[in-house]
Design goal:
With about 400 residues, the protein is an alpha+beta fold. It folds into three domains: about 80 residues, Acyl-CoA dehydrogenase/oxidase, N-terminal domain (Butyryl-Coa Dehydrogenase, subunit A, domain 1); about 110 residues, Butyryl-CoA Dehydrogenase, subunit A, domain 2 (Beta Barrel), CATH 2.40.110.10; about 140 residues, Butyryl-CoA Dehydrogenase, subunit A, domain 3, CATH 1.20.140. About 45% of the residues lie in helices and about 15% in strands. The strands form two sheets. A four-stranded mixed sheet has the order 1-4-5-8. It has a four-stranded antiparallel sheet with strand order 2-3-7-6, with no helix packed on it. α9 packs antiparallel against α10. The protein is globular, with a radius of gyration of 22 Å. The mean pLDDT is about 90. Bound molecules: flavin-adenine dinucleotide. Flavin-adenine dinucleotide binds next to β1 and α11.
Length: about 400
């Protein structure tokens, strides 16, 4: 059953969170641009969260979390998202850490979880390869076992933040003769070692969010494999389930809409011609309704998690809906500015609209990252609706 309301204890916790935000929120304004900002600009914010165990709120207290219930974690994430505060956990805390809690050895948990929470290590996710994205199980990066080490050769691509990261968790082929899903292992290792080279890729909005990463005879100790040899696919899918079920941004859409209005109100009236256009207002109202729907997906996921269920196609539904909504929101924002919306040069006074065009271009990749919309729809069709595979 989907539960929309706080009970008395949850309402009290929500107030604790709001008080915390009132005291520390200024430190966490703006997004985490992934360029090590949780170590730089956002460090005080991270430290404030760490002091409460709120970097990984639902992890057990013994490993540095706050031991909160999943509902409390949801309330915390909801409040942070609605106040526009940065998520500083990164994919190490948000996706890999929870999977390590499920599949890791005690030694691996001791080695990695504390360092992750303290922000001492940043992680990159090595899944995609030039020939393997949607069909990830066809990956070719090879790990050959030699005694108590694997020797790694191959290439990853689109690896977010690898140029700033210390560590990588990745999938490599350990048995080329087995059926493709059953010959893969999940390995972890330092990116700062001989044989690893990282080459940033530049996007059309002139940023470098991701990289190519090359491996040439990289030595990885067998003890740093997570899960059994050749069973890494299933460990990797746990990581991916956490990725698709991460819900913070589902509750942030309404805040983004409020920000769009605020930014437009600060502009000279002639630079926001859309504001007087009834069709634009209809579009904006539609986005508002959709932002509410997006929240319902988040409630559904947290209700399932609280009942001990692992969201699967439900995570895909939330992901496809939110990423496409992000694009519609960006298009609606751009529509406010008419021809001014094409200005990019932030040196010109009229170019405040540049923020709209930058988020429009930035939103293009959201339906690709974390599995494309087509792949999410395939998951909904086959696992959610029991339709036969196409
Ligand atoms: C911003 C961003 C960040 C990323 N970060 C990372 C990261 O940190 N680590 C990482 O490993 N990867 C990362 N990726 C890569 C991402 O996971 C892949 O781009 C994605 O899975 C798609 O793979 P591909 O690019 O190889 O496209 P392809 O798989 O080649 O797909 C091409 C097109 O074919 C369609 N298609 C493919 N198969 C099917 C099918 N069976 N049915 C219907 N349509 C299909 C796709 O939907 C797509 O439109 C990132 C990508 C982006 C955009």
């Amino acid at each position: 059953m989907v539960d929309f309301f706080d009970d008395a204890e949850e309402a009290a916790f929500r107030q604790v969170v709001r008080d915390f935000i009132a005291e520390h929120g200024e430190k966490g304004r703006g997004s985490n641009d992934g360029e090590g900002s949780s170590r730089g600009r956002l460090r005080p914010w991270r430290e404030a969260l760490v002091s409460r165990g709120w970097i990984a709120p639902a992890w057990p207290v013994e490993v540095g979390g706050a031991g909160l219930s999943l509902r409390q974690q949801f309330i915390l994430n909801q409040e942070l998202a609605e106040h526009g505060l940065a998520n500083v956990g990164g994919l190490g805390v948000n996706f890999f850490g929870p999977a390590l809690l499920v599949h890791g050895t005690e030694e691996q948990k001791r080695e990695h979880l504390g360092a992750l929470l303290r922000g001492e290590t940043m992680w990159a996710q090595g899944w995609s390869e030039p020939g393997s994205g949607s069909d990830l199980a066809s990956l070719q990066t090879r790990a050959v076992r030699q005694g108590d080490e694997y020797i790694l050769n191959g290439q990853k691509i689109w690896t977010s933040g690898a140029q700033h990261a210390d560590m990588m968790y990745m999938l490599a082929r350990t048995d080329p003769d087995a059926p493709k899903h059953r010959g893969i292992s999940l390995l972890t290792f330092s990116l700062r070692q001989p044989g690893v080279s990282v080459r940033p890729l530049t996007t059309m909005d002139d940023r470098q969010p991701f990289n190519e990463v090359f491996f040439e005879d990289v030595h990885v100790p067998v003890k740093d494999r997570v899960g059994d040899e050749n069973r890494g696919w299933y460990v990797g899918m746990t990581v991916t389930d956490f990725e698709r079920s991460s819900i913070g941004s589902n509750v942030g859409a309404a805040r983004r809409l409020r920000e769009i209005v605020k930014l437009a109100q600060d502009q000279p009236r002639h630079q926001v011609p859309g504001a007087d256009n009834p069709q634009w207002r209809v579009q904006f109202a539609d986005r508002w309704v959709e932002a509410e729907v997006s929240k319902l997906f988040a409630y559904r996921i947290v209700s399932m998690q609280s009942a001990g269920l692992i969201p699967n196609y439900e995570g895909s539904m939330a992901k496809v809906y939110l990423s496409e909504l992000n694009q519609r929101i960006a298009r609606t924002a751009l529509g406010l500015y008419g021809l001014y919306g094409m200005l990019w040069d932030s040196g010109r006074p009229e170019a405040e609209a540049g923020a709209a065009v930058r988020s429009y271009i930035g939103a293009v990749s959201s339906t690709i990252a974390g599995g494309t919309s087509e792949i999410q729809r395939n998951i909904v069709a086959t696992r959610g609706l029991d339709l036969p595979r196409g």
